[in-house]
Amino acid sequence: MTTLTARVRTLAVCALLATAVAVAGCGSQAGPKKAAPTPSPEAETSRPPTLAPGPQGLAPVFKNGERREKVVALTFDADMTADQGTRAARGERFDNPELIRALKRYKVPATVFMTGRWAEEYPAQAKAIGADPLFEVANHSYSHYAFTKDCYGLPTIAPKDMKADVERAFKAFEKAGVADAVPYFRFPGGCYDRTALRALAAGGVTAVQWDVVSGDAFATDADAVAADVLGGVKPGSVVVMHCTRSAAPVTEKALRTIVPALRKQGYRFVRVSELIGAQGSAR
Ligand SMILES: [Zn+2]
């Protein structure tokens, strides 16, 4: 599948979400802002590296590592929207323990962008993911409401409530027992603008986008998802996938192809923190 058709398919999926309001990872059209890395924060403390604020103090945005070394960060959005509790109560599964098990089996480090609502629904899984050194837990908002208007039909959160929504997710992680969530934030739907970046400026988070869309949202063909990923990855890439079984049912199956194929090409899997930490020495 070509990149273009992959994007068309992804956008079609996103259009579907206009009514389903279930999943992010629908490619953002907003361009990332460049931001200078902070000098080796890991050298002094164990805190994860972050980017320095962008122009005019806006929250910084990281898209991909632009590395020469063959490294790739698989990221998994653990989506659950604030109003999906009744669906979960009826048995719909927004988690994907098989996927997490597969990552552990393959020993693939990964970054999980979790909504606070997901952590409330699946506290034991949130805690276990947070406690596993393979993984880092990052913030995908509490509510999974959009931070801009017209974002794939997601309900929109007001700018005055944005920072609090992000903080509420971190609190939900703590309550679930995630001790050390990383200060990275993925906008629901990947949608952001200057207003959103300004609203988060004081929050201390680095926004993390991606350069490879897996197209796993509502996909039924694992081979097509794998082909999209393998066709898009380059050194330093960030791949967006999902850890939400009901809305991304073939992700684990696609990994069975993706992981060995990328390793065969010489790729090493890393967490987003490694890409951000290395940003300063990448050029
Ligand atoms: Zn999402």
From TrEMBL:
Domain NodB homology: 70-270
GO molecular function: hydrolase activity, acting on carbon-nitrogen (but not peptide) bonds
Listed name of the protein: Polysaccharide deacetylase family protein
Signal peptide positions (record): 1-24
Region (Disordered): 28-60
Domain of life of the source: Bacteria
Keyword line: Signal
Taxonomic lineage from the root: Bacteria, Bacillati, Actinomycetota, Actinomycetes, Kitasatosporales
BP terms from Gene Ontology: carbohydrate metabolic process
Pfam short name (any one): Polysacc_deac_1
